[in-house]
């Protein structure tokens, strides 16, 4: 589900802005660890299986990892949902002590990204995906060249057929059973249709 009243470019700007916010806060957890420890509720520190410093670093790592995913546009919706839950839980756990306009703005923007998912410049979707698909798609063939290409395909098909027939006749002359010849041709890369057609032609006209 996408939010229709935002353009794809606007959603891309929101996504990038949100991701930079989470990356900023994430690195803050590592640079100003002790300040973040002081802002944590005492019951969290007392009941957590991790020591307070590791807990702060773990929290920062979550924001950095999923913030980077948002920045690149990879798994945008999943990353935004995880960050929304993480931010909401942090607000509730802290007793709404860290609730300020900046946090509310980031939370609302993250929700917008969660609803929107991929946008026009996401690595996981949008125009980037279409450009990647176009890059790896075969080029359109000019109408002038189509008869030439078709003739080459027909000639190649005829040569393959003759090669199959020659191989079958040679193996039959050596006393090899049909099923072994059939399996050998499959292993050599010929299709089942080509092999069946060759056996059928040989059966109808043994002198070919």
Taking the alpha carbons of the first and last residues, their distance comes to 63 Å
Tally the helices: what do you get? 10
Number of strands: 0
- How do the SSEs run, as a string of H and E? HHHHHHHHHH
Oligomer: single chain
Determine the fraction of residues in helical runs and give it as a percent range.
over 70%
Instruction: Give the overall shape, derived from the CA principal axes.
Output: elongated
Strand percentage = under 5%
Class by SSE composition? mainly alpha
> Unreliable stretches, pLDDT < 50, 5 or more residues?
126-132, 151-155
Q: Can you give the mean pLDDT?
A: 77
Please tell me how large the radius of gyration is. 32 Å
Biggest sheet descriptor: none
Q: What would your notes on this structure say?
A:
The structure is a single chain. The protein is mainly alpha-helical and 208 residues long. Helix content is 74%, strand content 0%. The protein has helices at residues 8-31, 33-39, 42-47, 52-72, 76-93, 101-116, 126-135, 146-173, 178-188, 192-204. α8 crosses α10 (192-204).
């Amino acid at each position: 589900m996408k939010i229709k009243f935002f353009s794809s470019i606007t959603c891309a700007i929101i996504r990038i802005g949100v991701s930079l916010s989470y990356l900023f806060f994430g690195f803050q957890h590592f640079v100003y660890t002790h300040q973040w420890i002081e802002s944590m509720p005492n019951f969290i520190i007392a009941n957590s299986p991790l020591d307070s410093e590791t807990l702060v670093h773990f929290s920062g790592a979550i924001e950095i990892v999923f913030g980077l995913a948002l920045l690149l546009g990879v798994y945008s919706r999943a990353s935004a949902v995880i960050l929304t839950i993480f931010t909401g839980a942090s607000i509730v756990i802290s007793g709404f002590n860290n609730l300020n306009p900046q946090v509310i703005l980031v939370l609302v923007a993250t929700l917008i990204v969660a609803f929107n998912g991929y946008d026009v410049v996401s690595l996981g979707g949008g125009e980037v995906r279409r450009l990647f698909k176009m890059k790896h798609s075969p080029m359109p063939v000019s109408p002038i060249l189509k008869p030439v290409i078709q003739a080459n395909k027909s000639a190649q098909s005829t040569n393959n057929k003759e090669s199959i027939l020659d191989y079958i006749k040679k193996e039959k002359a050596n006393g090899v059973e049909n099923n072994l010849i059939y399996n050998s041709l499959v292993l050599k890369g010929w299709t089942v249709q080509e092999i069946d057609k060759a056996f059928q032609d040989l059966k109808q006209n043994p002198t070919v």
